[in-house]
Task: inverse folding
């Protein structure tokens, strides 16, 4: 992501591979897939940037980076099964290749390795943070399903969902480093707030593109959230404005042939796309502002750059 942390990320890949070693072939194979698939490594990158920002011990920073990535990866294994997904990062989903039991237990294996890593950090505060984060991820996933089932759509519930899906783990990647670095309460709160706000902006951007993005660039069909009965920010704006047709489309999971196109037209007609973009920009700006307490540094500049990227994408 940035030259500043490239060596850290290279070391991270080796440590992740070592952590996921197993004498059981199927678990080993799923671990190898995780390592070779790579992905953005956003959360570990944030941990390493926080480490540079706070001049934290590199070994302790690595523990946080590994922990959040293992928790994230375990949740993806479970999510793919729940969502009946065909692929993950361009590859066949693990549960389709190895079956439900292997996929779920491999996710649990990652969680066990995660707790081993944080236990060795000898910090009850870090254990509490990661436990809280894991619980929120579970609650966010179930709440999203509950909203679609019971049609309890609201902005409050939506933000609880995206906090669980993205923001709490992004925040943990930063706050965990602050804990082990014995940062001041003000610094710790600033990094937590940055993570929550940036995480929200990042997830809202994904939700926005799921409906209004370019299928060629996304590499998947648009409207996936609609087909699962999920009401994202743009849809909720329409509900709030009394656009009954939008609620009907979400309620029937966009099953009619032109439902996705209709929803896109409604979003644009009523300005819900602009409202969503403004909310993304607002969250990203909040993330930038809370970094004011830190002195200027390359790490701070990179954190600002990440949030600024979401602002630029939303324009």
Result:
């Amino acid at each position: 992501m940035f030259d500043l942390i490239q060596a850290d990320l290279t070391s991270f890949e080796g440590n992740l591979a070592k952590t996921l070693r197993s004498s059981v072939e199927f678990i080993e194979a799923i671990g190898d897939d995780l390592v070779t698939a790579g992905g953005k490594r956003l959360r570990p990158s944030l941990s390493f940037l926080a480490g540079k920002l706070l001049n934290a011990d590199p070994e302790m920073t690595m523990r946080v980076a590994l922990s959040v990535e293992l928790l994230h990866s375990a949740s993806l294994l479970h999510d793919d099964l729940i969502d009946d997904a065909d692929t993950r990062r361009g590859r066949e989903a693990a549960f389709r290749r190895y079956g439900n039991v292997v996929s779920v237990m491999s996710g649990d294996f990652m969680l066990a390795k995660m707790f081993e890593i944080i236990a060795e950090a000898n910090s009850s505060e870090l254990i509490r943070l990661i436990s809280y984060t894991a619980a929120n991820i579970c609650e966010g996933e179930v709440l999203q399903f509950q909203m679609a089932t019971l049609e309890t759509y609201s902005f409050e519930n939506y933000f609880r969902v995206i906090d669980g899906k993205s923001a709490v783990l992004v925040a943990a990647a930063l706050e965990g480093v602050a804990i082990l670095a014995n940062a001041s309460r003000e610094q710790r709160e600033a990094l937590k707030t940055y993570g929550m706000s940036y995480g929200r902006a990042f997830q809202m951007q994904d939700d926005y593109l799921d409906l209004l993005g370019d299928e060629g660039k996304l590499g998947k069909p648009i409207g996936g959230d609609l087909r699962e009965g999920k009401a994202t920010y743009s849809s909720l704006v329409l509900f709030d404005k009394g656009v009954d047709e939008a609620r009907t489309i979400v309620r029937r999971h966009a099953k009619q042939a032109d439902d996705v196109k209709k929803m896109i037209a409604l979003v644009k007609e009523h300005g819900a796309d602009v409202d969503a973009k403004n909310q993304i920009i607002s969250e990203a700006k909040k993330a930038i502002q809370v970094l004011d307490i830190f002195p200027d540094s390359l790490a701070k500049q990179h954190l600002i750059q990440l949030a600024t990227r979401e602002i630029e994408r939303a324009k």
Remarks:
- The mean pLDDT is 90.
- The radius of gyration is 20 Å.
- Residues 207 and 232 are 6 Å apart (CA to CA).
